[in-house]
Specification:
5 helices; 184 residues; 4-stranded antiparallel sheet; elongated; alpha+beta
Length: 184
C-alpha cells in the first residue's frame, strides 16, 4: 500500500515541549535525585554544611547545563522528518548537524582521555543517532499526543523516535502512519 510522501522540518522547544521535558526529567532528574538522596542519607558530621555544599554544586551543574543548551541551540532543536513507503525518517537539520558533531566528538575524546568510557559511549551513541529511519515492519507501537502534535514511534530498544508535527500537517501524518500501524 503506497504511502504519500510527507516531509517537513520544524524547530522544537527543548524546555516547553511536554515530551522533551518528561524525558529530560527522567534523564536528569532521576540521577540527580538519587545523588541528593544518597547525600542526605550518608551525611554524618555537620550534615547541614556538607549537604548544602553538595546541593549547591548540583544546582550549579544543572544551571550550567541549561545555559549550555541555550547557548548551543537557543533553547530549540531543529529536526526534520520524512514519512514515506520505507518508514519514518528523523534527522537533525543542517543548522544543528555541525554543532552536534563537535559536541559529540568532544564528548568522545574527553571521555576517553579521562577514562570515562560511559561518557565516550554516550557521545558515540549520540553521534550515530543524527539520522534515523524506522522501517514500517519494525514498528511495534505508535502513540499520539494531539495536544503537543507529537507521535512516539517504538521499534525496539534503540529504535524509538518522537515525531514532532506542525499544526498544518499533524492530521495528515497521523493518517499516513495509521495506514501502516495502529496509532494509540
Amino acid at each position: 500500500m503506497p504511502t504519500e510522501r510527507l516531509a517537513w522540518e520544524t524547530e522544537v522547544s527543548i524546555f516547553r515541549n511536554p515530551l522533551i521535558v518528561k524525558q529530560l526529567m527522567i534523564a536528569i532528574g532521576i540521577p540527580f535525585g538519587l545523588v541528593v538522596l544518597v547525600m542526605t542519607l550518608t551525611a554524618t558530621s555537620q550534615p547541614g554544611v556538607y549537604l548544602l555544599y553538595g546541593l549547591s554544586l548540583i544546582v550549579a551543574l544543572f544551571l550550567l547545563t541549561t545555559a549550555l543548551l541555550f547557548a548551543m541551540y537557543g533553547g530549540r532543536y531543529a529536526v526534520g522528518f520524512v514519512v514515506d513507503d520505507k518508514g519514518i525518517r528523523c534527522y537533525t537539520q543542517a543548522t544543528h548537524v555541525r554543532r552536534n558533531r563537535v559536541l559529540n566528538n568532544l564528548t568522545v575524546v574527553i571521555g576517553f582521555l579521562t577514562g570515562k568510557f560511559t561518557a565516550a559511549g554516550a557521545g558515540m551513541l549520540a553521534a550515530s543517532r543524527q539520522d534515523v529511519t524506522v522501517k514500517w515492519n519494525r514498528i511495534v507501537s505508535v502513540r499520539s499526543y494531539p495536544a503537543s502534535r507529537t507521535l512516539t514511534v517504538s521499534a525496539g530498544y534503540l529504535d524509538n523516535i518522537a515525531v514532532f508535527c506542525t499544526p498544518e500537517n499533524y492530521e495528515a501524518v497521523v493518517a499516513a502512519v495509521a495506514e501502516r500501524v495502529s496509532v494509540k
